[in-house]
């Protein structure tokens, strides 16, 4: 029968869950308002530690710092080692559990207080290949009509400039320089920057502008008039981020590309990475992306380095000879 504790439903208590752990999990729900899913996640993490300790004749409640260090070392060297984020979450659960035991007077020391957090590193951005980006643009162009022409313009601008999606969809008509060679973009903190447009992006804008009127409606024209990409329905008067992301997902499927790989922000990553691939300097890429700190831009150098290492490993004759013995 399912128990009810403190007015919240919970699953039947497992025989392997100790009273101390059960009390900690109840506290999460009663005092911190944790959801049942959160309770179950903490239970899974702490029971994993408990089972490993039990195999070595130790209980979770009595474990010392060295026991916990040995467990973390076991995770790091396991054949299917969990991701650093998973280890960090598990360590957080341990720290909270032992703090609870100390606060309740069930232990006088906290064995998790001396443990170091694992280095999580910074996840590398997803990147599309140049061929995949071109496939997206070609697929959009094949649609024709106002919708397809607008989509080509959106993609060409995004790939030519690396704009944030909010900057892209909210571009005013006045952002286009008089000579058409660039855009004045207002980014985070209201800071303006000039970004150049590629020839394909300029051509796409020129082709789209005569069709822009198809996205205007008389009763909303005052709201829509200033935007490069007006919307017939949005409260803002311009195409929304959410709508553009939805259109892009549909396009990705039509282009035969894994939709999990593609988002507006991934195209921003592609812009930066492909520029660096072709020899652009990091400072110029930083300015075009609108990064306040060049350290943010440097993440793309890791993507390029990883790609170059794979190219060498796969195509360099010495690397192939070594791999083949």
How does this model look, in words?
By secondary structure, the chain is mostly helical. The chain has 2 domains: 4-103, DNA polymerase, domain 1 (Orthogonal Bundle), CATH 1.10.150.130; 130-315, Intergrase catalytic core (hpI Integrase, Chain A, Orthogonal Bundle). It is built from 15 helices and 4 strands. The strands form 2 sheets. Strands 1-2 form a two-stranded antiparallel sheet. Strands 3-4 form a two-stranded antiparallel ribbon. The model is unreliable at 1-15 and 308-325 (pLDDT under 50).
CATH architecture of the largest domain: Orthogonal Bundle
Q: From N to C, what is the helix and strand string?
A: EEHHHHHHHEEHHHHHHHH
| Weakly predicted, low-confidence segments | 1-15, 308-325
Shape: elongated
Topology record:
Layout: E1 4-5, E2 8-9, H1 19-32, H2 36-54, H3 65-77, H4 84-103, H5 130-143, H6 145-161, H7 165-169, E3 182-186, E4 192-196, H8 199-208, H9 221-224, H10 241-254, H11 264-277, H12 282-289, H13 294-297, H14 299-315, H15 317-323
Antiparallel strand pairs: 1-2, 3-4
Helix pairs in contact: 1-2, 5-6, 6-8, 6-11, 11-14
Which descriptors would you attach to this protein?
hpI Integrase, Chain A; disordered N terminus; 4 strands; 325 residues; DNA polymerase, domain 1; two-stranded antiparallel ribbon; mainly alpha; 2 domains; 15 helices
